[in-house]
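for the record, two folds in this file. i put them one after another cuz i was lazy. first one right below, seq on top, structure tokens after. the second one comes after a little note so u can tell where it starts
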Amino acid sequence: MIGYTTLGTNDFERAKTFYDAVLGELGGKRSLSYARMQVWRSASGMGMLAVCVPFDGQPATPGNGTMVALAAPSHALIDKAYASAIASGAADEGKPGDRGDGFYGAYFRDLDGNKLCVFKLG
């Protein structure tokens, strides 16, 4: 249903390095590259995530209550993506674990404060 999500950044090069590490754990690869935006495509090709320097010239800020959820095929890959995020400077928002009803997830904030979850149902 969702085609792509874009997150703002105040340090474009740092954000690209961070998401190369985190999304790489989930099979994501860089696809579209622009002067102000970098897009990664999922292994299935069905979803994309992008980081960009805001086009209005204002500082990027995380949304209050906004979170991007990234699907993973296994608990092991969730654990690896979370570890990669933390090792790359992310802030912990919830270590990997069972959240009930077959939902396994891990939560962190990227280097610009955007909240993400890596999860698997079932």
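(here's the note) second protein begins now
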Amino acid sequence: MTPEQRLAELGLDLPDAARPVGAYVPAVRTGNLIFTSGQIPMRNGELLVTGKVPTDVRLDIAEAATIQAALNALAAVKLALADGDKPGDLARVTRVVRMNVFVNSAPGFSGQAKVANAASELLLAAFGEAGRHTRCAIGAAELPLDAPVELDLVVEVR
């Protein structure tokens, strides 16, 4: 079963990769590694939620936002795997190496790891053991567009 099929079983759709809003690209491949740009919880061009966790954004909503950001990062990986007219294939991912999650944190909030874990569990569901990764969960004073979370991935591909 492919990662996309596993995501579909969870009721999740892989979006199209977001277009950059600055002088950067969604992902860069160097050798067998793909590095994504930071992804925020956008869906269909709309930011799903804004604010600080947990004062403006409840923990469960922040976890859902992190899942959307992870789906966006996977879409960027898939785009980086495209070859001409041939679409990318997440089945070419051999290992999720690293995930960094930044949480727009209210003062005193220390639950960044719980917010990040929603995306970690998604990667395990999509890729099995190849989705087990290293991770940083970091509290941030502010994030772009007042997003509650931003994350990036490093994956190994064949």
